[in-house]
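Minutes, project huddle
Topic: does the predicted pose make sense with 2-(butylsulfanyl)adenosine bound?
PN asked that the exact inputs be recorded in the minutes so nobody has to dig through chat later. Recorded below.
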Amino acid sequence: MNDIERIDALRDELNRHNYNYYVLNAPEIDDREFDMLMKELETLEAAHPEHHDPDSPTQRVGSDINKGFEQTPHIYPMLSLANTYSIGDVDAWFERTGEALMGQKPTVVGEMKFDGTGISLIYEHGRLVRAVTRGDGEKGDVVTDNVRTIKSIPLKLQGTGWPDFFEIRGEIVLPWAAFERLNAEREAAGEALFANPRNAAAGTLKLLNPSEVGRRGLDAYLYYLLGPELPYDNHYDNMSAARSWGFKISDAMTKLETIEDVDRYINYWDKARKELPVATDGLVFKVNSLRQQLNLGFTAKSPRWAVAYKFAAERALTRLRFVSFDVGRMGIITPVANLEPVLLSGTVVKRASMHNEDIIRSLDIHEHDMLYVEKGGEIIPKITGVELSERHPGEPAVEFVSHCPACGTPLIRVEGEAAWVCPNKYGCVPQIVGRIEHFVGRSMMNIDGIGKETAAALYSHGLATTPADLYDLTADDLLVVDGFAAKSAARVIDGIAASRSVPFERVVFALSIPYVGETTAKKVARAAKDIDRLMGMSADELAAIEDVGPRIAATIEAFFADADNRRMVERLRAAGVCMAIAEDEVAEKASDILAGKTFVISGVFAKHSRDEYKAMIEAHGGKNSGSISKKTDYILAGENMGPAKLEKAQKLGVPIIDEDKFLTMIGEA
Ligand code: IVH
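Predicted holo structure (tokens), as shared on screen:
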């Protein structure tokens, strides 16, 4: 077998293993063997660039090139489904459909209603050519690059009998396990949590970074085949054919002949759906025969040949005991409903978040109201309504606190946001303790043996008010804290010592700069390279860093302008904490060709990513900036440069260069 034949054989083999693993859940080989085949293919492909194939399994990782999303009209509009909420309503639909078909009882197909985000996939000659979101139903965003990272979606079809052109629709979902993993990471990073897998799936699909999309573990179930030439005259057989081409079609899809079959299906899945690995919010019933579908037709919004049955959200009614207000590490005040304990989806609920003041207002919650608590797809129970008939007359509306419940400082409301914040950063105990707790966390300085309680105890014993104080602790100091013995104290001291070698990017994250989560910290640390540069950067320079918008840039600037924060940084530095990117991570200085020149990068590039261009500018002695001013020397423009930027550049007479011109400037053309 020559190299080219081997490449083809490996591509087929890896496609088959991907299918076994991601669609059938039945891998034939272990991860290590899979990785070895993948390595072999990568090596051979690198040696034979002439045999490149964008659909090769090696190409699924996704690139880092940022592209905005282009919009495209749907070939067939993406409609929604009529909803029903009871078995009786579904039965009535079934009867009505039979009558509309002049008494020919239809066979219907029962399916899960997956709770994710709708997608339309276009295949030509057996290859995925385009993936489009639902959008407004008429047109959607082209998200092909992101969808290509979803391993259960075939890039090249297997089997036979597929039409040369067809569309297949389905739902992109984030399985429960991946959803929980993602939220745990976000929580550790101090980032906002996704309320449910649907939001997480939709948010992930719209990320500009396909490799991040690939990492998050999306999956896809397909449920609708469209096109001018379909293999069969009925939905069930078409979907079964699609299954044989490599698509993931739910095993729950079942043909149902009678109203009793339909009722049994509903009763079964009402419970069994809880065991599924992905979120579902109901069932869908579709008339099987395409000819009958055609006869039944559509209303303006939805097909008459299909109906959705929505599962009842799990909901409980319970009495509000009182509202408390939590103070977070950043000073944000969260109202919490403290409830009479109530059983909901298998767990006892005593507290439920009310998120912010606007929610209390819009639900008009009064003291001691009977409240509806729901879990639905959400992880944290939430209050969804008030049972007015149970309200005691004269109970006043719940008032949001005006002063911090922990320290008494008057609260301030951040402009444009629903949150109230306690501004007393350095005197408010939950904020002080929260910052220490964050600092020692696993994704930050990773100091074992200090949790929430220890952080609080260190503070109350006067041993730590800022993370910098940790580096002055001795084992003897710790022995006065409840629960510490010689051994556990020594472990904490060792952990603190070891944290001196934690990389700079995690140190930046550990500092508790508002809005700076793990990813942003990494980007900021890599761009600044050391703490002195970072502390000296203007909001404008900060905004030039990828993923740092003007709001985050302003907060970072303000954070380092604060004398207390600067003092903390100096103490951490004196204690030996790492304050610069390690030598081998710093890109080598290539030249001084761009010394004294300031660049603004705008648009989408073909040859390198924006980050790479930024790094090149710096490697050649130039500076990056986020906005155009008189000080800008060049605008490095790709495709789709914003019109406002273009106008400003023209007005100020700043030269606009494209990537080829830039590469020539630095001698890399
Ligand atoms: S069929 C014309 N089948 O629910 C009918 N939709 O409310 C096309 N959905 O936009 C839809 N599971 O995103 C269909 N088994 C399933 C579904 C399903 C989830 C979503 C889909 C659609 C929405 C309709």
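Observations noted during the meeting:
- The longest helix spans residues 3-23.
- The radius of gyration is 29 Å.
No decisions taken; revisit at the next huddle.
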